[in-house]
Amino acid sequence: MATTVTKNGTSKKETVTVKKEVQKKLAEQTIGKSVNVQPVKSTSIPKSETSVINLDDRMQKFEQLKGLAHQRTRLSDTLTELNKFKYNQSDSANFEIRDSQNLSFITTNTNLIHLVTNHLKATLESRKSEIEKQLIDFEL
Fold first, then answer.
1. Is residue 121 situated within a structural domain?
2. Taking each helix axis from N to C terminus, what angle separates 47-84 and 110-137, rounded to the nearest 10 degrees?
3. For the chain, how many structural domains are there in total?
4. Which tens digits make up the pLDDT trace of 76-126?
């Protein structure tokens, strides 16, 4: 701080405070002088668009969840029906496979029927457990 002498003989001290410097910078900014200030760019999407996108995504995921739940229900029903099935050593058990051209394969061999139903049960149970895992891990 320097002391200066004026014409009438009294001395005056120049005092520069932080407040004055801040006021000066603010004045320069409002006038439009270049002060190292970078404008903030808005990269956010308007709220109305994000809510629509999120709603559509959420609805699509909900439909996927419903599809998985429906598959699990069908598998459970099929497994229940297979478990109800009873076959004996007599000729009362029949196994028939028919294709789209109406060709068929029929057997009364209970050992073969037993093998096929056991394999079918194992396949259905493994698929059911896969779907249940997907349902547990599913996020809306």
1. yes
2. 160
3. 1
4. 999 999 988 877 766 678 889 999 999 999 998 888 988 999 999 999 999
